[in-house]
Structure formats: structure tokens, C-alpha cells
Write a sequence for this structure.
């Protein structure tokens, strides 16, 4: 029981902090009729719908299957790294950075063992983490806080993409350049696979004498045999995009998604990480209350109003970019600097984007002696990317 409670607390630190802050704020501003206006229901509905659909796709192995097929076609160590880094970069634009890393970091660790590239694990996983954070910032659905920023700012999808595209493109060029330089003289790959099935087998069941774990196959179906589920989930994802783009009503989007998964896979509702929408709700309550405290509101507005982009980047290094978004948007309407700042703020420290902890935990669990090496390489690479991209914001005129 004690171990379970410790694990629960460690995995939900931000939710616990947000809940404590919400409770304290409720003691300052007692509950009344205005509380109902605090919660941004549109953001919560969009977030929950996307989380359900992406979790469902993850449970039938769609993303891992795509990765296996791509990797089965590469023939050099440099190509392996490019493929592994490209997977979270592009997938995070649609499935969020944390889901991309949860899916592809364990996958990458196993592939690097198969490719005799264990010594490169820390660097490759660091580059994959940067890629996920930089890819996810491009789209309104790539980061959870982008959904809220798009809704509250009133920006349409095209304007949002136009705002963030230069930063994602510059990050992609930097990532590719690093890979080409570091892996330019590596020998041809000698990985004993002949197709996507061999990659999946090597990742999921490297020990031939043991049964294949149930990661691709779920309840008797998988992404290759259960084509109808893939089709249903793809349609559900399209419905989510239409909802986020304000093409269909939010209530219709949520209703369709819930009904689809009640019929296809009820267990997905137990697999979704409900801590994230709950964290949003707690921060909404805290910020809503504190905006009604004149002294606090005046100080916060003065702090954010001077340098919103810099404040967003700085706060993200300490409390991560999701809480920073919810906090600062309560006291500033400088939407574009806040959008850029909170997204770029996902780089830097290990907690700047909580998704980055996924990579750290996976690498350290496999290679405990690499803790200091990981922190040094991660911090160095992230600091370089953050410096370049924040400097670029001056040129892009945010």
C-alpha cells in the first residue's frame, strides 16, 4: 500500500500541487456562482476526446507497427537514427509529445540493441525527446496546452500553424544537421532483420523461448488483423480534428468518440491518463480565484506584461510549460508571445516539459549507470536548441 501510494504521488506531482493550490484559493475566495465560469469546457472536451482516440490507437499497436515498417527499410546507422528521431517529431504533431515518447522511446532502446548501437542510446533518446517537443509545438493538438491556447486566443488553425512553423522547421534542420555530423562516418548497419515483423519481434520478444507479450495484439486482434478497428479509430480521430477546428460542435465530437470506444474497446477508459484533464481543472479553479484577488492580479499582470515570451520560457523551466500556460494566460492576453514562449519553454531543464521525463525514466531503468551522462547530454543539447530558437524569435518578430 505504501509503495503504491508513493508511486501514485510521484506520477502525479503536478496534479497534487494544482489541487493544493486550488484548495488554498478556495479558502481565499469562497465558492460561489462564478466558479462555473472558471472551467474552459471546450478545452477539457477536446483534450479528453483526443486522449481517448490516441490511447485506443496505441493499444492496438498502430504507432509501433508504423515504426517497425519504416525501420525495416533502413540500411545504415545514420538512417536508423534519422528514422528514430523522425518518428516522434512527426507523430507528436498529432498524438502529443508524451504519447509519442511513451510509444517510441522503449521501441528505440530495443532497436538500438539490435543495431549494435547501445553506446548511442543516451544521445539518440535525447534527440528523440527534443524532436517530440519541437514537432508537437507546431499544431494545436500536438501539446495539451496548445488546445487551450488556440481556444482562448481565438487563433484559427492556419494562423496557429503559421506562427509555430518557423520554429519547428528550424528545429528539424538542426536535428538533421546534428545527426549528419555525428553519424557521418558510421559503418553500414548489420541488423539481422528482413522485414517489419522481424523488427516487431525483436522489440517485443527478443527472447525466443518466451511468449510474445500482448503489446501489439490486444484481446485477440492487432493493427494488421483488426483493420476495421483501425478504420473506426481513424474516423474518430478525424472527428476530433473537425471539433478542434470548430467545424462540428464540441458536444457532438465528444459523444461520437465515447460511443465509438464503448462499442470497440471499453478498457481504453481505464488506460487513459485522467490526471491531465484533472490538472487543467484544478489550475482553472486556482487561476479563476486568484484573478479575483486585486493585489495578486495586479502583481501578476505587471510581471507578465513586460516580457511575456521570456517569462513563459523562464517559468516553464521551473514548473513545466503546461502549468505555466494556465497560470500566465490568466493575467495576460499577449497570445502570440505566450504561445511561442510556452512551446519553446518545453526545452531546457528536464521538467520543462513533463513528457521529457518519459525518456529519462525509460533510459535510466535500462541503464542505471547512465544517469549523469543522460543529464549532461540532455541539458547541453536542450540548452543549445533553446538558445538558438529563443534568439530566432527576435528575428521572426513575435
Amino acid at each position: 500500500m505504501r509503495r503504491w501510494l508513493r508511486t501514485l504521488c510521484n506520477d502525479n506531482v503536478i496534479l497534487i500541487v494544482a489541487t493544493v493550490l486550488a484548495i488554498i484559493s478556495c479558502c481565499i475566495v469562497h465558492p460561489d456562482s462564478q466558479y462555473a465560469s472558471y472551467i474552459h469546457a471546450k478545452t477539457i472536451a477536446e483534450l479528453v476526446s483526443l486522449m481517448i482516440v490516441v490511447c485506443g490507437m496505441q493499444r492496438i499497436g498502430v504507432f509501433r507497427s508504423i515504426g517497425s515498417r519504416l525501420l525495416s527499410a533502413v540500411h545504415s546507422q545514420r538512417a536508423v537514427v534519422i528514422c528514430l528521431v523522425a518518428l516522434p517529431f512527426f507523430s507528436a504533431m498529432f498524438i502529443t509529445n508524451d504519447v509519442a515518447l511513451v510509444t517510441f522511446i522503449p521501441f528505440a532502446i530495443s532497436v538500438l540493441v539490435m543495431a549494435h548501437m547501445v553506446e548511442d542510446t543516451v544521445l539518440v533518446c535525447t534527440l528523440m525527446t527534443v524532436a517530440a517537443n519541437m514537432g508537437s509545438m507546431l499544431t494545436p493538438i500536438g501539446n495539451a496546452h496548445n488546445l487551450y491556447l488556440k481556444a482562448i486566443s481565438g487563433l484559427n488553425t492556419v494562423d496557429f500553424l503559421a506562427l509555430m512553423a518557423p520554429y519547428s522547421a528550424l528545429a528539424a534542420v538542426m536535428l538533421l544537421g546534428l545527426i549528419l555530423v555525428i553519424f557521418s562516418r558510421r559503418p553500414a548497419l548489420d541488423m539481422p532483420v528482413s522485414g517489419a515483423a522481424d523488427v516487431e519481434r525483436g522489440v517485443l520478444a527478443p527472447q525466443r523461448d518466451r511468449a510474445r507479450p500482448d503489446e501489439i495484439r490486444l484481446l485477440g486482434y492487432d493493427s494488421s488483423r483488426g483493420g476495421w478497428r483501425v478504420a473506426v479509430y481513424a474516423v474518430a480521430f478525424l472527428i476530433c480534428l473537425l471539433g478542434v477546428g470548430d467545424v462540428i460542435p464540441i458536444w457532438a465530437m465528444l459523444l461520437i468518440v465515447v460511443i465509438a470506444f464503448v462499442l470497440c474497446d471499453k478498457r481504453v477508459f481505464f488506460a487513459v491518463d485522467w490526471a491531465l484533464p484533472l490538472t487543467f481543472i484544478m489550475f482553472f479553479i486556482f487561476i479563476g480565484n486568484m484573478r479575483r484577488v486585486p493585489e495578486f492580479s495586479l502583481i501578476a499582470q505587471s510581471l507578465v506584461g513586460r516580457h511575456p515570451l521570456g517569462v513563459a520560457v523562464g517559468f516553464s523551466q521551473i514548473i513545466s510549460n503546461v502549468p505555466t500556460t494556465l497560470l500566465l494566460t490568466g493575467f495576460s492576453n499577449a497570445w502570440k508571445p505566450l504561445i511561442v514562449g510556452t512551446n519553446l519553454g518545453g526545452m531546457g531543464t528536464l521538467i520543462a516539459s513533463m513528457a521529457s521525463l518519459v525518456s529519462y525514466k525509460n533510459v535510466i531503468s535500462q541503464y542505471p549507470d547512465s544517469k549523469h551522462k543522460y543529464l549532461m547530454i540532455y541539458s547541453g543539447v536542450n540548452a543549445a536548441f533553446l538558445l538558438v530558437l529563443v534568439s530566432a524569435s527576435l528575428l521572426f518578430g513575435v
